[in-house]
Write a structure and sequence with these properties.
The chain has about 140 residues and is of the alpha/beta class. The chain is about 55% helix and about 15% strand. The chain has a five-stranded parallel β-sheet with strand order 3-2-1-4-5.
Amino acid sequence: MRLVLDASVAAKWFSNEDLTDRAVRVRDAFLDGRIELCAPQHIVYEVGNSVWKNKSLGPDDSIRAIESLLAIEIELIMLDPKSAGQAMKLARDLNVTYYDAIYVQISVMRKIPLLTADARLFNAAKNAIHLKEYTV
């Protein structure tokens, strides 16, 4: 199965919160080759910001977290100008942030589901799966 990975799921890999266990199962399934993951390039910055805010992670842990996100080599996608414009339309139509609309746009372009732990994005996107409902 191929999925667009939302930062709300990937950020849970580096925290201990609700649904972390499910997020870790997604990561492990990717590492084992059972699923394929892709995401927009800005997932690195969104997860990095989450790691930076995480008070339970020390400086060295934070550095290792962001390095490990890049090391597992999720396919990172850069939108072309037309797709970026379509994402802006989605942001306005769905009333979501432009960052979130890019995840939706990739889901539409690739014709694959978006995996998210964000209830607002889940409710806005037609082709989304909420992490609490996803089983590997």
